[in-house]
Structures
1.
Amino acid sequence: MFDAVGFGALNLDKIFMVDKIPKKDEEGFVRKIELHPGGSSANTIVGLSKLGMRTSFIGKTGNDGDGRVLIEDFRRQGVDTSFIIMGDGRSGNAMIFVDDEGNRAILVDPGVNDTIEFNEINPEVFEKAKLIHLTSFICKNGIQSFESQKMAVEIAKEKGIYITFDPGLIYIERGLKELETMIRGTTIFLPNRKELELLMNMDYVDASRELISMGCKIVAVKMGAEGCYVTNGKEEVTVKPFTVEVVDTTGAGDAFNAGFIYGFLKGYSLGKCGRIGNFVASRNIQKVGARAGLPSKDEFADAGIE
Ligand SMILES: Nc1ncnc2c1ncn2[C@@H]1O[C@H](COP(=O)(O)OP(=O)(O)OP(=O)(O)O)[C@@H](O)[C@H]1O
Ligand SMILES: [Mg+2]
């Protein structure tokens, strides 16, 4: 059995430190390259694995060097990789160019991420997963992956698998009509405040109530420096964040999700889940990188949050 299985894009971020970001017809030089495995759902699953949860992942890589880096990295982090599909084509990656002044230019290649067909997914995963965590696919090369997530939600409903869903801006921009069936089958919806208000065209408190009335069980809204707001329709709680020195908020939302889902799987109260989410995010934002600072099981125990 797996406590949590991620289902989303797998990307290898390649950070190129360059002398300059070239314009048309110009040339620049690469000083250093850093490789960082990423993808929102993948980040959250790594966070859960570090906290001692049994984890796996539904996703697709190309049969290439980047794909092997992504899979090897999951293994090192204790994430099962038996449900990852290796297909023909390129693995998803983002090329991030950073010059000496810190200016950035980014090129994203969704690669085979967008091509997952539902029938490529080994159905055994639906016998083994307690919870499936969904995040967005870019859908530049087709919407098969989005459609397969919708089908996964239907199966999860039949089998009593919990669905947690962080739509990110990419899915929010698809609009409520397209997300409606997924939201109805969602156990925990995990947007940030801006995304939620954009999706529902109302303030986050009313929007959360509306989502609960649509069938979603819990809405946990990430509120940046204000912490989080969580409701299940009966209780509504705002949980203050931890006061820390913020260095880099990349991946803060993914780290929050890991903490919140951990609390949920342990059967904790809404307020406690929100507090653990805030805590895991607070550790992440004190370091540079989407997966930096995520606490191990022992560090978490030592912090006395539980
Ligand atoms: N300045 C801050 N101080 C303390 N905690 C913070 C701060 N900013 C963010 N956090 C924590 O990180 C969580 C997630 O941040 P945020 O609300 O920015 O999510 P997000 O917009 O989904 O992030 P992401 O850009 O990673 O998708 C917050 O709920 C909070 O717990
Ligand atoms: Mg987010």
2.
Amino acid sequence: MSSETESDLGMLAPLDEMMHPYREQFDTYSQLPTDGRDRNEILHEMETLRDLEQARWKEGFASGSVYHGDDEHIAFVNRAYAIQSQANQLHTDLWPSAAKFESEIVSMTAQMLGAGQTEAPFGSEHGICGSVTSGGSESILLAIKTYRDWARDRKGITAPELVLPVSAHAAFHKAAQYFNIQPRVIGLDADYRVDVSALAAAVNPNTIALVGSAVNFPYGTIDPIDQLASIALERGIGLHVDGCLGGFFLPWAEKLGQKVPPFDFRVRGVTSMSCDTHKYGYAPKGTSVVLYRGQELRHYQYFTIADWPGGLYYSPTFSGSRPGGLSAACWAAMVSMGQSGYLAATKRILEAVSVIRRGIEGIPELHLLGQPIGPFAIASDQVDMYQVLDQMSARRWALTGLLKPAAIHVSPTLRQSQIGVAERFVRDLTDSVAYVRDTPDIEGGMAPIYGLAASIPDRAIVHGMLKQVMDIYYRL
Ligand SMILES: Cc1ncc(COP(=O)(O)O)c(C=O)c1O
């Protein structure tokens, strides 16, 4: 146990209970056991933990999180992982299969995002190219580091700035913090898309790149990528489109007849994209793809060292050794889905979304923010959305609370396309809103924490609170 007692945690004590429910039930290892435990016993314990946790996401109560989750798909990708669990991309001499899997993952993703419809062919000097990374954040961090180094080298920019919508993912701020870049954050228009004229006005000689999302995490809306691309071309800077969430969804939604504005490499000024295989690509967690227009840009991502006593060393992404099994499982997921599989999956999700949207239209207190296609956010002028979120949690739902405005984000997945799940969501949402509307002074839950975090003027207090949350995670 940590030296901090429950009462020291104050209003964060419920988080400790949520993150550490197993203290009483299972042994806690604060140090290595003297002797190794029996393997069967260990596996049994792990299966017990899995069984305690999986019903909620399997039955479709979670936003995002597990995007496929059918038993057969899981068993298949697990087998693919197991086959390559010893592989390491760092040692291509031992595992050339890793190079096959990753180059094909990059090519398949690029082709889906318009690489075949641009001026230069895929993989040529000016064609679309990229890398497999460990997730959306790494794809974004790498792209931003790439622009910083490109701008320093090609434009002599030593005080780099990045112009991004307020709706862009937190990972862009992480990149700015890690790589000493000044973020210029731009507000949104009435449709929750970036305000293009404000964005144009923020560009200056220190700007290294622009950012747009297709779709953004909070609202699921798509920034006007074609207009951002024109600005980027005119100013001679890059445009990164974050397709981490939408990259494996929008291309298929477009083919299914949804009105998807141009967002990928078919737009000339788009110079890089991030696209997560471990979300709507249906690979297990731990892979994403970052793509660039032209190998020159990708070279600014690479790390090389020519005079290290440990030998000639290079690595394309942040990690050194990498889990070959994850790339193998990602490749297996993609080629087992195929174009028809992605199309069918997207159709099922869109059908669930339309049931949910119709349901929301029938709840007078609620409205959607902007005009999303897949992931969406629900807000209200009449009820406290954090209280609604608590009520949904009490009904087993795992959704995300948004800060500005107070709203609930939902990323619908194949789990919600199971029979009756979308209808259950609407029923529970209707009941939750009615309860909040009719019950004055509800106490407890997470709503007070969200409310406080959204409104405290001194943001340093909120930063401190968030650090405390991570400390709680590491408590025994
Ligand atoms: C639009 C968008 N970009 C980036 C990310 C970051 O992805 P990851 O959590 O895989 O690092 C997410 C995650 O939800 C996202 O929705």
3.
Amino acid sequence: MANETFDVVIVGGGMGGLNLAALLTQAGKRVLVLERGGQESLGGRAASGRIGGAAVDNGIKGLIMSGSQDEIYRRIGKTLPENVCKWTNSGQIYMNGEWRELDPLLQRAMDEFLRIYKGTAVDSSYEQLEDLDAISIKKFITDRTDNRDIIDFFDYLGWLFGGTLPEATDYSAGSLFYSIKKQVDANGFMPSQSYWVKGGSGAIAKGLIEAIKENGGEIRTGSSVSHIVIEDGRVRGVEVECGDKRVVPTQLVDTKRIDAPVVASAVAIWDIFNIVSEDDLSPWFRDRIEHLHRKTLNLCTLTYGVDRADLWDDSGQRWVQKGPVSGRPWCASDLRYFDDEERYEISFWMQLGWWDKPNIFEMRKAAHKIALRKLFDDWEGDVASLFPGIAENALWKVRSFGPATLIETPGNVGRALVDVEAEGIEGLYLVGERTSAAKIMGVYGSAHAALAASDKILQKYPVGSGSSAGVSASA
Ligand SMILES: Cc1cc2nc3c(=O)[nH]c(=O)nc-3n(C[C@H](O)[C@H](O)[C@H](O)COP(=O)(O)OP(=O)(O)OC[C@H]3O[C@@H](n4cnc5c(N)ncnc54)[C@H](O)[C@@H]3O)c2cc1C
């Protein structure tokens, strides 16, 4: 029996894969998305679960808006879910044992702040901003001003994005300003707040799934791709696991082949070598992926469901530079993800870098679990001390931990990343935050990469060209 055939097969039903599938089906391509997880996994790291009437995110809290997800929604004729972020100020920061307001700090130096912030994002070209990819925010700002308030604010911005990096401001200036410029160009305003998705981050995936199905695309969950078939330097299709699985861990499972002239890998960077043979890639490309793989940021989240408004004063997001018990920096904010408006979530997050967990595959080891439990216990001590009442009055609590994204350090973004079109392999595309097109990490980065990949695929394999020829051969 002939193999099934599609114009494009996309491996991974996270935001990168769904965004690309939505764009290509809209353009008329016959697309198959293969996701190894169940239906609830669609959206990948940006999926949301549910507890007691509330959407609970897999991890994401504040998406850094940068125009690309909006652009995809516009192209597919859908409306992005509402932004439920209420605050527009910059929140508060807990430094040296006291809370400090960030707004007064900024107001004191607004003119100079605008000169640098707006001047750089709006007046520079994208090419000029890419020249800042390898420069840290710290260097960027201290080269331009000696105003302490401004330096503190950028320090804080670096901290916000760079999290608990050893060098607090060691975050790429190019990455920050590129995303601001993208948003100004796409939406016509400077970002003053991030985007918290009504219904949880998983709500963004829903619109994409609808669009894919409306345009004749297919999504198969529970479908794990064992590898991308590459012969003579060109993609031929994928092998998908099938039949009885996992009776014993070492069991070799059966696979079936699906043919396609174009395959896009939309899996996270740590999964790439599960599906692409290292031997198929050029040494440079392979080394680059391995280098990036080690630059992964892990993220811990602590989420409480609460029904007492007096436990939180709604004044915005707060950053704790050094928790009184954990001694670690983290961030807290409230979100309204409950169906019932009387109740809401309070969410805390903390970033851990590769120096804490040198190899993400090691994370499953018991020793790390013990270390993580201690970290969460100490962190809850911080919460009890700084926000009394939240832990005791919680309706429920979720502790979660996982590899979040790549670290946006200088030299680790933009031009330092790989192209969406895989070097030297005809028909293979890479979508996601590890690509130069992503510019920023996270959901908006995946959306940037999907836009770039879609444009390249449609240019090289126009609808109605040879790439669609095998459609009728489908089983
Ligand atoms: C805790 C946490 C907090 C985060 N916070 C933020 C935030 O605040 N803002 C932000 O913008 N971003 C945040 N991120 C990052 C963001 O979630 C990711 O950058 C983004 O969702 C990546 O999308 P992706 O499609 O590229 O990858 P993924 O979401 O990882 O999708 C890849 C998909 O491929 C599937 N897959 C893997 N291997 C196979 C295979 N062999 N066959 C079939 N399917 C396969 C996986 O199951 C998965 O669904 C956070 C992530 C985490 C984990």
4.
Amino acid sequence: MENLFSLNGKVALVTGGGRGLGEAIATALAEYGADVALAGRTLPDLEDVATRLRALGRRSQAFQVDVTRVESIERLAKEVVAAFGRIDILVNNAGLNIIKCALDVTEEDWDRILDTNLKGTFFCCQAVGRVMVAQNHGRIVNIASQMAKVGWYKRSAYCASKGGVAQLTKVLAVEWAQNNVTVNAVAPTFIETQMTAKMFEDEQFRQSVLDRIPLGRLGKPKDVAAAVIYLASEAGDLVTGSTLLVDGGWTAW
Ligand SMILES: NC(=O)c1ccc[n+]([C@@H]2O[C@H](COP(=O)([O-])OP(=O)(O)OC[C@H]3O[C@@H](n4cnc5c(N)ncnc54)[C@H](O)[C@@H]3O)[C@@H](O)[C@H]2O)c1
């Protein structure tokens, strides 16, 4: 069988690509053959990742973006097209969480989480979707969370934002199917990254999470990157509107 996972000749854009899951996803995309534009708030970490991807023999460049600001996103899409000529794959990975009981969540907390995770994802889809619709080809992968499907303590705004991402993914999949643009989401369980390192220092919390995962381990960035490669490559050509759970079975019971 031909290599259905090859991304040779494709151009990918990864938001929040300077560390954590974004870095792992960007690295996997490059390893499978794609040139990779990395976007995020601060350039130095993105430049480091871009240097490592160029060492793999791919084109890679860092771009500044604040995904909470639409004009910043629109500028990013233009800059990436100017530099790379097209965008075949968009991975909306930039995201954040503020862990607080519902009774303590402030308006500012709510707006930061929703503006980054949901509004940012939508307007990145819109700006890059325009490019993909014009190309009559595109693959969008939104990084949601298992918390798009289930609730969890101290994550009211986060769960709302990721549930919104899963719904948004379905609507865009339906609207852009006629343009050969697929839109899917990946919904990871707890993955060991900078975002979660601090909370897993608490052994009791770590065990409570492991007790919920039938496969008995936390996720690794490669677990998420592999799902992204599937959805971004020819292997996933008939898949659109899906939210692929990478959760070790958390949501199965
Ligand atoms: N780590 C996990 O356990 C886990 C589980 C499920 C889903 N996720 C999701 O995966 C994604 C990546 O998570 P991570 O663990 O790598 O987190 P992380 O904090 O290590 O990385 C998030 C990245 O997003 C960037 N970012 C945040 N706000 C931004 C903005 N306004 N504009 C541009 N970039 C911005 C950050 O600079 C950072 O590079 C997030 O969407 C997160 O919600 C993570």
